[in-house]
Amino acid sequence: MEREFDFVIVGAGSAGCALAGRLADSGGDSIALVEAGGRDHHTLVWTPAGYAALLPRAGARNYGYATVPQPGLDGRRGYQPRGRGLGGSSSLNGMIYLRGRPGDYDDWAAAGCDGWSWDDVLPYFRRAECNVRVDGRDDHPLHGGSGPQQVSDLRTPNPFGQRFIEAAQQAGYPYNDDFNGETQQGAGWYQVTQHGGERWNAARAYLHGGRGGAACNGGRANLHVLAGLPVLRIAFAGRRAIGVMVRQDGREQLIRARREVIVSAGAFGSPQLLMVSGVGPARHLGEFGIPMVHDLPGVGGNLQDHLGVALHKRVGSPELFGVSLGGVFRLLGEILRYRRDRSGMLSSNYAEAGAFVCSRAGLDEPDLQLHFVVAMADDHLRRMHLGHGYSCHVCLLRPRSRGEVRLASPDMRAAPRIDPGYLSDVRDLDDLVAGVRIVRSIFAMPQLAALGGKELYSAGLRADGSDDDAVRAFIRARADTIYHPVGTCRMGMDTRAVVDPQLRVRGVQALRVVDASIMPTLVGGSTNAPAIMIGERAHDLIRFAPHVTLRLPEPALEA
Ligand SMILES: Cc1cc2nc3c(=O)[nH]c(=O)nc-3n(C[C@H](O)[C@H](O)[C@H](O)COP(=O)(O)OP(=O)(O)OC[C@H]3O[C@@H](n4cnc5c(N)ncnc54)[C@H](O)[C@@H]3O)c2cc1C
User: Fold this and answer.
1) 13 lines ligand 1 (CB under 6 A)
2) Are 76 and 309 in contact (CB under 8 A)?
3) How far apart are CA 278 and CA 291, in angstroms?
């Protein structure tokens, strides 16, 4: 195997694939995209409903991390699935296509991230996107029609999604035809990262287009996709990153980067890789005897995640996913249907419909998101129930609680120590209480209530809203991630920032971080499209602004 490349990118997830594909197409440099997991060519990855089999437990395609016990969640450990293999978490995610709101990015810019305002990032969202609604056209002010990331409407929307949307309208929330349009408010269908009824993950978008072939590089001779090769640490000469260390043929080997090492290992993997390589808070690294390259106190801090709580309702309808004899027969038919024309229940992303709502009057933008799931999705599908039903998750879009990622071992192959600090800011809990009430008010509307059924865990909550303490207890007992950790290699201009607005790691040379970990704050939506946007924009920063040097004050050493 060739051992020296111009760029070495660690992690073939949403951002890493976008960056690698773009870099390979825009110049003659050689690129190594080094990914811990394997290829994504698998039925369970490409069949949308297949992720139900991958989500519940750790395995070859899912890191399946656990958090440390969370005081805010009655001491429970949260679950943190993360995609492993080409496509990263875009091979395991719920496929919902969302960007957040313009104000989210304007806040980034206002916090010192020059070049990351909405006007700056919108062209990258559009460049990335091929939205079926504007297919082939590039004159839409918000959507792209010719990018590599396919975005579609669901092929076979579930009738219960329609009932949810109508129930939400009965509860006073307007219909919204496009959550990435002018306004986010209201209820509607999600658009999904699918094409022809199949998952369109970042690997298909940017690497191989879903075609076979072991190289996975879409025929580009300068792109070397090295799957199944976990990076152990970044190699430095002084403070300059010169490559990455991997274990191959029974020994550690250096893959050398002539120009840059780019870390795209995700919100947990990227800070972990920096820390095991000697870039991070000095005292913490000292606990593990890791030789210091640079004391960067912000690495691993600022962890933010969307915490959600689900309300489930058992309803005896085989239109919904569920466990029953009738359900098995229906599923067999659905498998044949999917094989025939890629439609039917197997093209479902489960969280088919949703809503953006405000927890209280007077907010400029919705602060709560609802995911209506056409199954009783309980505890990340780790707890199954007999029968059929639906659920609705409510999550807080801009939580104030902060956590951190730390090492549990100096070995990169061990799981990191993840502490999201859920509900450490009590205001988050109060906003979720409002969210639970909103979900129940929608469940109570005729379009859903007429179908009957019984709530699994929330039936005892009062309808008149007079039992906030009980709702708080319900949330503490049941809430968990809806899978959007970000912020652990935060971009900014202050002394605790990890990367500058060109995504260069502060205090060292030839090293960048490019993935969801650089987000200063969570956006008001899910995080796959924003991670891809980050990869797209990083390409332009690397290609077109390589010689701009930004000088920042060095962080003071911790006492
Ligand atoms: C279950 C689930 C559901 C989700 N649902 C949605 C959704 O519906 N819509 C949405 O927009 N977002 C969703 N998300 C979130 C979204 O998918 C992620 O935010 C996004 O994919 C993150 O991209 P990334 O590039 O930062 O990291 P990732 O895509 O996670 O990629 C990181 C990659 O780095 C690799 N890596 C890590 N360490 C190493 C190492 N040492 N050596 C080599 N490779 C390494 C990993 O194997 C992985 O492939 C979901 C996520 C999950 C897990």
Assistant:
1) yes
2) no
3) 6
Average pLDDT over residues 57-75: 98
CA 220 – ligand 1 centroid, Å: 24
How far is the C-alpha of 274 from the C-alpha of 298, rounded, in Å?
Answer: 11
Q: How far is the CA of 483 from the centre of ligand 1 (A)?
A: 9
**Ligand 1 atom 14 nearest Cα:** 93
Whether ligand 1 lies within 6 angstroms of the CB of 81 is answered as: yes
Residue 481 in contact with ligand 1 by CB distance below 6 A: no
| 280 in Cβ contact with 406 (< 8 Å) | no
Confirm or reject: Cβ of 88 under 6 Å from ligand 1.
yes
Full-model pTM: 0.96
CA 141 – ligand 1 centroid, Å: 28
The last residue of a domain, from among 442, 457, 478: 478
Atom of ligand 1 nearest to the CA of 55: 1
Which residues belong to the active site? 484
- Higher pLDDT: 27 or 281? It is 281
Give 114's DSSP letter: T
Do 200 and 166 reside in the same domain of the chain? no
Instruction: Give the atom of ligand 1 at the shortest distance from the alpha carbon of 37.
Output: 47
pLDDT at 498 over 80: yes
ipTM of the predicted assembly exceeds 0.90: yes
Residue 336 has pLDDT above 80, yes or no: yes
Q: Is the pLDDT reported for residue 440 higher than 70?
A: yes
Give the CATH number for residue 244. Answer: 3.50.50.60
What b-and-e string marks burial along 208-225, b requiring 16 or more CB atoms within 10 Å of the CB? Answer: bebeeeeebbbebebbbb
pLDDT tens per residue, range 164-199: 999 999 999 999 999 999 999 999 999 999 999 999
Q: Do 102 and 234 lie in a common domain?
A: yes
Q: Which residue's CA lies nearest to atom 19 of ligand 1? A: 527
Q: Convert 485-500 to b/e letters by CB count within 10 Å (16 or more is b).
A: bbbbbbbbeeeebbbb
Which residue range(s) make up the domain with 224? 1-70+79-121+191-303+404-419+487-559
- Please give the distance, rounded to the nearest whole angstrom, from the Cα atom of residue 462 to the centre of ligand 1: 38
Tally of structural domains, the chain: 2
- 175 and 254 inside one domain: no
Distance in Å from the first CA to the final CA of the chain: 45
